[in-house]
Write a structure and sequence with these properties.
The structure holds 2 protein chains of 2 kinds.
Chain A: H1 13-17, E1 33-39, E2 45-51, H2 53-57, E3 61-66, H3 67-70, E4 74-75, E5 89-90, E6 96-97, E7 103-109, H4 112-119, E8 123-128, H5 135-139, E9 154-160, H6 166-172, E10 175-183, E11 186-187, E12 195-201, E13 206-211, H7 216-227, E14 234-237, H8 253-265, E15 269-272, H9 275-281, E16 284-285, E17 288-296, E18 302-314, H10 325-333, E19 343-351, H11 365-383, H12 387-394, E20 403-404, E21 410-411, H13 416-429, H14 432-441, E22 445-457, H15 461-464, E23 476-482, E24 488-492, H16 501-513, E25 520-524, H17 541-568, E26 575-578, E27 581-584, E28 591-593, H18 594-603, E29 616-622, E30 627-639, E31 646-656, H19 663-682, E32 713-718, H20 735-751, E33 761-762, H21 766-773
Parallel strand pairs in A: 1-15, 10-33, 13-14, 18-19, 24-25, 31-32
Antiparallel strand pairs in A: 1-7, 2-6, 2-8, 3-7, 4-5, 9-19, 10-17, 11-16, 12-13, 12-15, 17-18, 20-21, 22-30, 23-24, 23-29, 26-27, 27-28, 30-31
Chain B: E1 4-11, E2 14-21, H1 26-33, E3 52-55, E4 58-61, E5 74-76, H2 89-96, H3 106-118, H4 131-138, H5 149-170
Parallel strand pairs in B: 1-5
Antiparallel strand pairs in B: 1-2, 3-4, 3-5
Helix pairs in contact in B: 2-5, 4-5
The chains are: A alpha+beta, B alpha+beta.
Chain lengths: 784, 173
Amino acid sequence: MTWVGASVPRKEDQRMLLGRGRFTGDINRGAALHAAFARSPHAAASLGPIDLSQALAAPGVVAACTAADLGDPALLAVLERPEFVPTRLPLLAIGQVRHVGEPVAVVVAGDPYTAEDAAELVAVDYTAQPAVASLDGARAPGARPVHDGPAGNCLVDLTMFDDDRLPGIFATAPVLVGGRLRSGRLAALPLEGRACLAEWDERDGQLVMHVSTQVPHQVRSGVAQALSLAERQIRVIAPDVGGGFGLKCVVGREELVVAAMALRLRRPVRWVEDRQENLTASFHGHEQCYDVRAAFDADGRILGLAADIDCDVGAYSAFPFTCGVEPLMAATELPGIYKVPAYRARGRAIASNKAPTAPYRGVSRPQLVLVMERLMEKAARQLGLDPLTVRRRNMISPGEFPYTGVNGITYDEGSYAESLDRAEKQVAEAGWAAERDRLRGQGLRAGIGYSCFSERTAYGTPVMSLRRMRMTPGYDTASVRMDPSGEVIVTTGTCGHGQGHETTFAQIVADRLGIDPGQVRLREGDTDLASYGWGTWGSRSIVIGGSAASRAAEQVAAQLRAVAAHLLEASAADIELAAGTARVRGDASAALPISELARIVHFQTHRVPEPLRYGLEARSSFDPPGTFSNGCHAAMVSIDVGTCEIRLRRYLVVEDCGVVINPMIVDGQVRGGVAQGVAAALLEQVRYDAQGQPGSATLMDYLAPTAAELCPIEITHLETPSAHSETGAKGMGEGGTIGAPAAVLNAVNDALAGTGTSFDHIPVLPSDIHAALTGAARGEGGTA
Amino acid sequence: MKDIHLIRLRVNGREHELAVEARRTLADMLRDDLGYTGTHLGCEHGICGACTVLVDGAPARSCLMFGVQADGAEISTVEGLADGEQLSDLQQSFSDRHGLQCGFCTPGFLMLAEGYLAEDRPGAAGAEPAEAEIRELVAANLCRCTGYQGIVEAVLATARSRRQRAAGAQEPR
């Protein structure tokens, strides 16, 4: 029996359910000061003098600063490529503001009410400028530059895999499909916004920061860079973190300003973001536009694919990923699970006067899956073929793995065909088609849609280095140390924030050591405890951190076997560790509790030979090339023709993330991901008007899904073990979000069959449905 | 000039007397003045429900109430649900059915559900609440991690077991 594979109850639950979680805002510092920010009300403006005198005069205010007061600190995220234009990110604006909500000054007071009141007293002399508020506006000839320098507001322009056969292919192919496909701007919307508590520790000569982050080490590096400190002078601790979804895998300006103020005042300073700041002034993602052409032969096999991909990245490059993360991923990974023989893609990052972007869950994969799945549907329609047949003819098939695509990516073993087969079978067995027909009989429109996809997970430096980031992420390091009572502390550079790492890492380590997961404690999210690591994002933690922990635990297990072999006068090769006991295989009487081995190594270390003395501990790193999870989603929707409301009726997921460490936790990740993907397809959109004013600054306007907009999500697991992790696990944090938009959009289009309209954008809103049902939207779906 | 009021209230059965500024929200008062940090703030405009507490037994958004409005009230927060370290049936059900991930919204859902369960009166003894009824209840609050399925299942299971217990207790002996 192994702990891996079992739905072990989560260690995290008890404290959360008791109300004893410790989030950054919950940490009690009686004397803490509170920061509030004066923010730009303009999308674009030049910045004249800033008058802090009224704010400083307000009772209870301790300090107020502008960029000039702080020495104009900034962050710079860099791709070392000629096609990249770096944009300096000032912690507080100086000379120019580039989006509504950009911080201009900070006010620190004894309580948050006073600080917020005083921030409104900061007087700023703005001269408003015309805003660049849309992708079309930013790309237009003569568009006002958001930053001095780049033409057309283009910060990254990369043409990849250009194939000179493509013009010929497009000229002669029997079927051409394509069009313009777009996805709306999204907010990651963790329920806990960003938060930071910074205090100077005189004894350790250290700035100690509690930050609601996914990447404590990168926050430390960011503080070091912006404030010219050595990294050892900063300790970043992520306490309990209330969700992240990518918004917290970049470093925020406000956290660094708070650090600067704590340094300056030598007093604890806290800032807790409110929801309006979170929706308007943190980070967005996913606003993308694809102009795509694809050629198919008469059997529905794809012959060539060309795409021009533009991402509206907002006003700045976020640290450390840069604004290249969306266009580079999109241009590299667009072909996905399909065998595309000829490919060209141009990916661009376009600046605008909007909040900057971070790698929100899925990054560009929800969009590129949407594009490929729409192309398959369009080709099938033109050819009069079953869309699932067209997918099967094009997908990488059993026997073809590992498959190296036209994009240079090698896809490790997956269950692409099997997952589609299983989904189709389950849809049939559960009677979805009959249910759809029944709904149609009731006067509703109803449709079923599929999406097939894989997702590259656990990008290590072998892959990340191709992006040429100045700070190239990817590896992680774990230490495993057994104490004299036989219990274990594991440290890693990962940083869970809801994924249940404390439980799953304990399962992995417990198996290696033959002990109970209850005896294993994971300590992550603390830069003083763990070796430099890259946090939790990109579906990386269980593959990279988990493999590093597994390797380190295996070294400690070898130490335990050697100690037991010495004490039991046996060969180490004959010792097995299980159920808390080291025993000699085949000899029931020769056994010692593992806790006794730990006691002897520490308290009577003279009883073991020299190489086994002085402790039981090991350290190991892991740095994989990445490994592909895959899945197939199916969705059924209905549309009320009177109200144009779209309702999700049924949802199923067949997913393969290799060896499942904890099925309960995997299912939870899938369901939460699907909820976000469904919302991206039907509800959520960050809106700006033509002046760059945000129109979605509250949760009344930004529609996160409630339980009423979702339905139960059925999940089936397939297990194709990964060769690129110690446990056989693949990453799986993003698949739900990646697969859902395409399945839902295809279902909506199926429901609209016969109207002459199909949609190629998300979110599809009731207003779109109204246009479709009244004929006003005819032709939107591009070719076919 | 600060407008300070002296108020008294009970939180989880414990008496508190404090001076509070008129504009201070109940949520901030509970968290920062009285130390009940289990109650979380997710939006501060009444949508997400993370700050839900029971005020005289009924769920309320503590971000939309002023502390002074709780003068004389009986407040229940997440800290009062368990018996020491022993989770309540509702809390245990959330863990069993994976009704929480990051845990930030969880106190609000627990108090929302507890308010519902406390006044849940089965029409017929042992009758089961419908999934749709619980889903509608759960739709009062936002969770960004779970997709709500575990939350709906946890509340449903607790409602069923409490109704069964109530029905059992009513049977003639």
